C-alpha cells in the first residue's frame, strides 16, 4: 500500500488516541507507545500500521495531538496544491466550452481550498504556541468545512457535459477530499466532546451589545450598516451618469486594493448596472454601499441553459474575506424557464448583507461556503432559491415566492451539508415567508442538510407537511431540520413530515445553538460522530493493497492460471485459452488479458474478411457481391465497436462501473449483431458462400462472445460483492437520476440547448439548414443537405425538412453524429423509397432511410417503403445508431418495416405499420405510446408484429412495448378473420420481447405468439405480457412454451425505460414525453398465479435475485412530467380510445397521434411523483446474487484478479 494512502488512516488512529486521552478515557501515565498500540488494535495488518504510524509521528519530533493534527493539515495542503497542478493539465486537452468553464471553476475552487487550509494551518500554529482565543475553534471548523465543499462544487460544474472529463477530475480530487474530511472529523472529535448546553437556557441570541450582529464584525462596520452613507468615509464612487469616479462597479473593484486589512468603501449611486461582477478572494474587506433596494440595482441574466455552470451564473460573486453590502439589489432576470440562474453567490468568510434585495427564480442566493449574515434583506424565487453549504444566518428577512412553471413545486431552501462534522447550515430567524403558491420550506440537497426556522411568520400557502424530499428517502434520517416558535397560518407543526431528521424544537437551549453568537461563530451544536466505512472504501483499499504485488515478476504458471480463471467465464472456453496463451506474454494482469481478448476478436474479424475466398466465389452473382460488400462494411463496424469497447475498458474506473459496463455491453452486443447481419445478407445467394462466410467468421464471433461474457462477469462479481449498490449509490442520487432542480442536467451526450429543439415548433428553432421540395430552402433534396453537415460534430445540427414527398434513399452514416431532423408532420414530410429483397436488394440495404450516426433525433417525419407485400422484405427505416429518439414519426411498409438493428433506441408516439415482422432487429428498444397497425397481407399470409433477434444470452437487448396499441389498419379490419395476427415470433435463439400496459385488439390470436419456421427457440426465448388490456389481453389460451414467462411486477420493472435502456439519464431531460416506470396502477401479485422461477438464462445481462424477484437498481422516477393527463386505469374489456378528427396528435395514451406537429412540452422544475409513477416504500430490500459460474468457490480471488490492474 502506498504511504500517502495511509495518511488518513494514520491520522485517524493517532488522533483517536489523543481524543481518548483528552477526555480522560485512558491513563495519562501510559506511554506513547502504548497509545499507538491501542490506536492500531483490532485492525487488519496491525504490524504495518504500527510501523508506519510510529515513523510518521517520530519524524515530527513531538508526541502531541496538536503536532499530529498540524502534520495532517500540512500534508492535506500539499495534496491540494498538487491537485491544482493535475487539473490544470486538463486545459491542454480538446474540450468543450462547458468543460473549459468547469475546469476553470475547479481551479478557482481548489485555490479556495488551498487558502482555507493555509488559514487553518496558521490557526493551528497559534494554538500550538499557546495563543488563546475562543474564535480560533470557530475559524478552523468554518474553513475546513468550506475546503471540504469546494471539491463537490467543482464536480457539479460538469452537469450538461458527457461526464468523461469529470471522471478524471474526480480521480484527481479523491485523495485531497478524503484528507480534508479526516482532518475535519478529527478536529471536531477533539473539540466537541463532551457536549455542554449553554448556561442560559433562555438565551436565543447574542448579547444586546451586539445588536444581533456577529461578534466578528467591528464596531465601525456595525456603524456603517446602521448609519448609512451620511458621514461615512467613501473611497470611490460609481455612477452611471459619470458623476463618480467610475461608470461600472467592476472597474471600481478592479482598482480597489488587494488583500486590504482596512475597510474599502465603494459607493454605488442609483441606477441599473448590467454587469456580472466576480470579486476574487484577493479583494478583501470591500463594502458596497447603494442608494437603496430598487434604486441601486446590479442585474444580469446568465443561466445554465446558456451553457454556464451554476457556479458561474451569478450576477455578483463575492469571494474576498469580510465583504459587506448595504442598500443594493442583486438580480438575475433569466426567468424560470432557464433553470439555474444565480443572483448572488457568496464564498466570503464573515460577510454581511444589510437591507439588500436578492431577486431571481431558481437558485437565487447561492450561500456557497463560509460564514454569512443577512439582516433585513428581501429574497425571492421559485426553486431552491436559498441554497449552498455556507453557515448562514438570515435575520429579519422577507422571503417571497414567485410563480413557477406549470407542475413545478416551490422550495425555499436546499442546504448542501455533505459531512456531519461540517459547521454549516441555514438558520432563518425573526423573518417572514410570503408564499403565493403552495410552498415547502426546503429539501435536502446533500446527505447532512441542515436548516432551522425560528420565530418566523409563515403564510397559509406554506404546506402543512412543511418539507419536501429530494427524492425517495434520500437523507431523511441524516438531515437536521428544525422549527422553533414560528407563527402564522402556515406554521402549525401538527401535520409536518415524520422524518427521523425532522425536529420540533421545544427548548430555548437547543434553539440558541443556531443563533448568531453560536452558529456562525463556529460553535458546534452536536457531538461529533464517526463515519461508517462504505463498501466503496473497502474495495478501494483492496485494490490499493493488491498493487504492491506488481513488483514481483510474472511467472508462466501464474499467467496460465489467470488465463484459465478468466476464460472459465466464457461460452467458448478453449478458444479463449488458446487465443490468450499466444498473446499473453506471461502476464497475470486480468485487465490486460481482457484487453487482449478484445484485440483477438478484432484480429479475427479483419482476417475473416481479408482472407476469405467468398469474394472470388460470388463474383458472378450480383446479390452475392452486394452481400460480401455489406459484410465488409459490417465487419468494419464490428471492429469499431470492439475498439471503443477496448478504449473504454482501458480507462476502467470502478466508481463508474455502472455506466461504463452498460456502454461496453451494448457496444459488444452491437459487434455480435453486425456479424450476424453480415451472414443474413447471404440469404438467397446461390451455392455455399453463406456457409463459407459463417466458417470464416466462426472464430471472430466466438471471440466477440467471449469478450461480452468477460465484461458481463465483472458486473456479476461486483454485484455479488455488493459493489453495484454500494459503490455508486451516493453518486446515483445526484448524477444518474437528476432531480428536477439543481441536478436537472442533460443527457451525457446532449449539449445544453437541445432540450429547446425538442419542444419548439420549427418556426421557433434556430435552424442550421432547410430542405424544401418547392425550392424555398437551400436544397431540394435531403442527400444534398447531408453533404454540408459537419462530420463527427460535438454540437447538435438542426435540419428542417419542409412539407413534401422526398423520393430518396437516405444514408445517415456514422460520422453524422448529433443530427436532429425535424419535419412538418409525419403525413406532410414523407421520405419514401421502394428497394426490396425481391428485386435484388438485401434486407439490410433495402432501407429507405438508414441511420448510423449516434445521438440522432427525428421528429414529425414519415418514413416509407412502398414496395408492397409482394416484394417481401422492404425496410422503411433502419436504425444502427446508439442513443436515438424518434418522436411523432410514422414508419410505413409491409414486411420488415422498422429494422431496429442495434444499440439503444427510444420511440414515442409513433405509428408503425406492416404485415410480417414489421418491427425486427436486435437493439435494446423501448416503444411508448406507439400504435402498431396491422396491414392487409397477401393471401394465405399471417401478420406478425415483432421478430426480435437476440443471439447471445448476455446481450442487453430486446423490445419493450409499453402503453402501445395493437390494432388493424382500417383496410385490413374487415379481413382480420381471414388472416391470423400474432404479437411476435423468435427470430433468434434468445429472442426477448416484453409487452406491457398495452391495448391488444381482437385481431390478435388467443395463442398470442407463433414459432419461427423450422426452428424451435421456445425453450430459450423470453416473452412477457404484463398488465395489458383489450379483447386479446387475457392469457388463458396463450402458448405454454417454457420461454413465455409469468412475472410479478418487481421483475417486470427491470424492463421499464429507466432500467432497461437507462432512459432517465438520456431521454427524460429532453422533455420528450417519457415514462420512466409503470404508467398504470400496478396490480397486486396474485397468490394463485405460479410465477416463473428465475433461471440463469433469464438474467445473464441483468442483475438477479432469489426466486421471487430480480434486483432493481434504479431509484423511483421523480422526473416524469407527462404532457397530458395519465390514461385511465386499465381494464381487460375496454375498447381503445377513439382518435380525434385530426389523426396525428401525439399523446401519452394508447391512441395514435392526431396532430401534425408535436405538442409543446412543459419544462418543469421540481416535478413531484406523478400519478403515473409508482413508488413502493414498503417493498422489501432485494439483495443481488451472482449467477452460477464454474468457479463460484473462487469468487474473491477472481475479483481481486479483475482489479489488480485497475
TrEMBL record:
Any one Pfam family here would be PMEI
Question: Which residues of this protein are catalytic?
Answer: 384, 917
| UniProt region (Disordered), positions on chain | 1115-1194
Q: Annotated Gene Ontology MF terms?
A: enzyme inhibitor activity; pectinesterase activity
A biological process (GO) of this protein is: cell wall modification
Signal peptide start-end = 1-24
Positions with biased composition (Pro residues): 1123-1139
Reaction(s) the record says it catalyses = [(1->4)-alpha-D-galacturonosyl methyl ester](n) + n H2O = [(1->4)-alpha-D-galacturonosyl](n) + n methanol + n H(+)
Protein name listed in UniProt? pectinesterase
